[in-house]
Automatic annotation (TrEMBL):
Keywords: Glycosyltransferase, Transferase
Name of the protein described by the UniProt record: Glycosyltransferase family 4 protein
Family matches, as PANTHER family: D-INOSITOL 3-PHOSPHATE GLYCOSYLTRANSFERASE, GLYCOSYLTRANSFERASE
Record keyword Glycosyltransferase present: yes
Domain of life assignment: Bacteria
Glycosyl transferase family domain: residues covered: 201-362
One Pfam family of this chain: Glycos_transf_1
Molecular function, one GO term: glycosyltransferase activity
Coiled coil: none
Protein source organism: Spirosoma foliorum
Keyword Glycosyltransferase: yes
Length: 385
C-alpha cells in the first residue's frame, strides 16, 4: 500500500484522518496552511510529518479574526490564493508515487502530478457538490431578502475539474453523495465515509435542569445554518420557562433579521472553548441544527455523545448518524413548524426526552470515534492500489 499525503488548508476533519493514517503506518505528510505554532496541541502525529505552507492562509486567518480587510473582493482573492498556492506548492514537492487525499479546491495541481508519478488522487469534499451548494444558497438568501454573490466562480471551476480528474471522490453523508449524483457524477466514483467524533472530550457529564426547558445551538448564526427557522420555532414553543442557549458568531444578515425581533429567553454566548461544550450539551434537553446545506455537521455526533437528542434537517448528514424518532428527529429544511412540533413533543413528554438521551449515548458506541473513519479510508486506499 502506498504512502498517503494529505492537503488541508485548515484543520477540519483532516487532522483526525492524519492520526488514523499514522496509526496504520500510512502517513507520509499532511500539508496545511496552518502555521506550525498553532498545531502544537495536535497529538498522535509526529511533527516531522506536518508540513506547513502558512504564508497566505495566515493572512486569511488574521483577517477573519480581526477584520483587517473589509473588501469582499480582496478577501475572496486571498482565500482563492491560499488554496491555489498550497496546491501548487505541494505539486512541486511531490516527487514519488503516493496516494494524495486533498480537500476539495486545493488538490487539482498536486493530484495531476501524483497521477503522473503513478499514484492516485482522492478529492475529499466535506459538503455537497459545489454547484449544488451554490444554487441552494443563492435561493435561500433570496428567501430572506438578501443577495448572495455566490461562491467564487474560480473555485467552482476548479472543484468541478477536481471531481473530473480525481480517481475517487469522498463525501461524508448520503445527502452529499446524492448531490453529486444529481449533478451528473457517476455513483461509482463516489465513496461515502462518515465522520467520527472525539469521544475522549464529548460524553455525558451532567443532566439538564428540571426548572426549565433548554434548547441548544452551536455554530455560526447564518442563513446557511438556518438559524431563523429555529428562532421562529422557539417563539411558537409553549413552555413557561423555555430557554434557547446559543454559541456562535452572528453574521450580519442574522443581526439584521433579529434587530426588530424579541430575543427574550435567548442567551447569546458567542464563543465557548471546545473543551467546555460537553457540559452545555449535557445540560441541554435538545440540540437543534436546521441547516440548509452541510456535508455532515460533526456537532451532531458531539451532542449525541453527551446524551443530548438532536433535531436536524435531512441536509446535515443526520440520516447517517441517527434514526428519526429514536435519538432525535430528522426534519425537512425550511420548516419551523416541524421543529416546533418536535420541541413540543419533548416538552410534553419528559420520559421521551430521557429515552432519546439514553438512546443517543448508546448510538455513539456504534460510531466508534474516528477509528471507523480511518478503517473505511484505509479500505478505500487499498481498493484503488
Amino acid at each position: 500500500m502506498k504512502n498517503v499525503n494529505q492537503i488541508s488548508i485548515g484543520r477540519f476533519h483532516h487532522f483526525h484522518l492524519a492520526r488514523q493514517m499514522e496509526k496504520r503506518g500510512l502517513l507520509e505528510f499532511i500539508w496545511t496552511g496552518y502555521p506550525l505554532f498553532k498545531l502544537r496541541d495536535e497529538v498522535g502525529i509526529p511533527h516531522s510529518r506536518i508540513k506547513s505552507y502558512p504564508w497566505v492562509h495566515s493572512i486569511n486567518m488574521a483577517n477573519k479574526r480581526f477584520g483587517l480587510i473589509r473588501s469582499k473582493r480582496i478577501n475572496r482573492k486571498i482565500e482563492w490564493l491560499a488554496c491555489e498556492l498550497i496546491d501548487k506548492y505541494v505539486a512541486s514537492e511531490i516527487t514519488s508515487s503516493t496516494v494524495l487525499i486533498a480537500l476539495s479546491s486545493m488538490g487539482l495541481h498536486a493530484g495531476i502530478k501524483t497521477q503522473q508519478l503513478g499514484g492516485y488522487y482522492i478529492c475529499d469534499r466535506g459538503s455537497s457538490h459545489i454547484r449544488f451548494q451554490n444554487e441552494l444558497l443563492i435561493e435561500e438568501y433570496a428567501r430572506w431578502g438578501f443577495s448572495f454573490e455566490g461562491i467564487n466562480p474560480q473555485v467552482i471551476k476548479k472543484e468541478e475539474l477536481e471531481y473530473e480528474v480525481a480517481d475517487k471522490i469522498t463525501v461524508p453523508s448520503e445527502f452529499a453523495k446524492k448531490s453529486f449524483m444529481r449533478m451528473g457524477v457517476s455513483e461509482a466514483k463516489i465513496s461515502k465515509i462518515i465522520y467520527g467524533a472525539n469521544f475522549d472530550r464529548f460524553f455525558k457529564i451532567a443532566d439538564p435542569p428540571k426548572n426549565c426547558f433548554r434548547v441548544f445551538w452551536v455554530g455560526e448564526l447564518s442563513i446557511r445554518k438556518g438559524f431563523m427557522y429555529l428562532y421562529e420555532a422557539f417563539q411558537m414553543l409553549k413552555h413557561p420557562r423555555k430557554e434557547l442557549l446559543v454559541v456562535g458568531a452572528v453574521t450580519p444578515e442574522i443581526k439584521k433579521l433579529l434587530a426588530s425581533k424579541s430575543t427574550a429567553n435567548i442567551t447569546f454566548l458567542h464563543k465557548v472553548a471546545n473543551k467546555d461544550l460537553a457540559l452545555l450539551y449535557s445540560t441541554s434537553h435538545v440540540f437543534v441544527l436546521p441547516s440548509i446545506e452541510e456535508g455532515m455537521a460533526m456537532v451532531q455526533g458531539e451532542a449525541l455523545a453527551c446524551g443530548c437528542p438532536v433535531i436536524a434537517t435531512t441536509n446535515t448528514g443526520s440520516e447517517d448518524l441517527f434514526k428519526n424518532g429514536v435519538e432525535g428527529y430528522i426534519i425537512p429544511i425550511r420548516s419551523p413548524n416541524s421543529i416546533k412540533e418536535c420541541l413540543q413533543q419533548l416538552v410534553d413528554n419528559h420520559l421521551l426526552q430521557s429515552q432519546m438521551s439514553e438512546a443517543a449515548t448508546q448510538r455513539v458506541k456504534q460510531i466508534n470515534g474516528w477509528d471507523r473513519y480511518g478503517e473505511e479510508f484505509s479500505k478505500l486506499i487499498a481498493s484503488i492500489n
